[in-house]
Specification:
By secondary structure, the chain is an alpha+beta fold. The chain has three domains: 7-89, no CATH class; 124-230, Butyryl-CoA Dehydrogenase, subunit A, domain 2, CATH 2.40.110; 248-393, Butyryl-CoA Dehydrogenase, subunit A, domain 3, CATH 1.20.140. It has helices spanning 7-23, 26-34, 40-53, 71-83, 92-104, 107-118, 233-248, 251-267, 279-309, 316-338, 364-370, 381-391, and strands at residues 124-127, 143-147, 150-158, 168-174, 185-191, 197-202, 211-222, 226-227, 269-270, 273-274. The strands form three sheets. The chain has a four-stranded mixed beta sheet. Strand 2 and strand 3 (150-158) form a beta hairpin. The radius of gyration is 22 Å and the shape is globular. It starts with 6 loop residues before the first helix and ends with a helix. The structure holds flavin-adenine dinucleotide. Flavin-adenine dinucleotide (FAD) binds at residues 126-129, 134-135, 159-161, 211, 373, 376-377, 379-380, 382-383, 386. Pfam families: Acyl-CoA_dh_1, Acyl-CoA_dh_M, Acyl-CoA_dh_N. Residues 125-219 form the Acyl-CoA oxidase/dehydrogenase middle domain. This is Acyl-CoA dehydrogenase.
Amino acid sequence: MDLSFSPEEIAFQQEVRDFLASHLPEHISDAVRSGVELPREIYQEWHEILGRKGWLCTSWPKEYGGPGWTPVERYLFDVECSRAHTPRIVAFGPHMLGPVIQEFGNDRQKAEILPSIASGEVWWAQGYSEPGAGSDLASLKTRAVRDGDHYVVNGQKTWTTLGQHADKIFCLVRTSTEGKPQQGISFLLMDIDTPGIEVRPIRLIEGGHEVNEVFFDNVRVPVENLVGEENKGWTIAKFLLTHERTNIAGVGTSMQALVEVKDLARQMKRNGRPLIEDPLFAARIARVEVDLEAMKITNLRMLFQAQKQGHPGPETSILKIKGTQVNQELRDLARRALGPVAAPFPGQMTETNLLFGPADTEHNAAIYFNNRKTSIFGGSNEIQRNILTKTMLGL
Ligand SMILES: Cc1cc2nc3c(=O)[nH]c(=O)nc-3n(C[C@H](O)[C@H](O)[C@H](O)COP(=O)(O)OP(=O)(O)OC[C@H]3O[C@@H](n4cnc5c(N)ncnc54)[C@H](O)[C@@H]3O)c2cc1C
């Protein structure tokens, strides 16, 4: 089996490198490299640069404004973007709602929604989780009651990532309490500035404002904003989640994190010797590198499978579990390599605090804590194991 890239794929990789070298502004890559929380303007500028090139929605076919790339091309693009320190593409429009509209949307929704995502112009948020409805998503209670040609929505969503920046939000709402909980759920689109919607920040352990609570108080939403059929939203919800899980794997991000960990381990000293020469530390690096190599192949294998069957399947749970484990191990190794200089949070640093590490590491502790989330969001890793045992092992 030949695992090397073809000459065409290598040429494609070079094309991406050239594009990034000429189109990724330095102030954007500097912001990403420093590890600070990015403002909307940075994401927006980068999304629009990719949008103009037709490279924002990497998994979309050409007919909807995507590049029509093969799985290998998408993989190479991700890896090159991580290497160049681009912002991650905010996935809610490009990688979640986009595929949903292509599969379940009507012609009007396709014509209105897809171009505004592909250009990077409109930013979406994901309104799935509620207090008491995370792992057990089907127990969600946000109610949408039909009133003429509108739904009236009341309830609350939580953990809404970057909702403070969003223009619109896609939500799972309860339209019926008859039968099994899964049977009364619908998929509804809303402008986030509709009267009655309020977005409130949740502060995370590292001090960042990445997630929010969203409250709905008699919000009137046109019936035409329903995607698919009323009470059939559960099928759409599951379809979207398989796309979300493929993207959480973050192989490119982990490859870059591995380079950085090795760099740190060369710079930091233990007992007067570079840390990378410490056999215990080197063994941990080796183990995570082997896992990452296996992940690369698994990721490609699943991208090909998804292309063949038209959509990703439940096996994306493997990618989600392994991808987040590798990512968290790398963040832990970076923190351990820095030792005491990884401890201060950016806000606690003062001019008199001399515990600074090498360049670009002052946000290391914050990044470590922030990444604890990856084994929880997109469906916790325990839930992914449940999915695998049911769907793939038949247990
Ligand atoms: C940083 C962050 C960003 C997020 N962004 C979004 C977003 O943009 N939009 C959105 O809708 N949601 C978002 N989420 C929510 C996320 O999907 C949920 O947190 C996740 O599904 C877990 O739900 P929960 O928090 O209610 O925990 P719970 O469901 O209460 O789970 C608590 C613990 O119990 C375990 N557990 C629960 N049930 C089982 C079971 N049956 N078997 C084994 N173990 C179980 C879980 O694994 C977990 O460890 C985000 C979460 C985080 C942390």
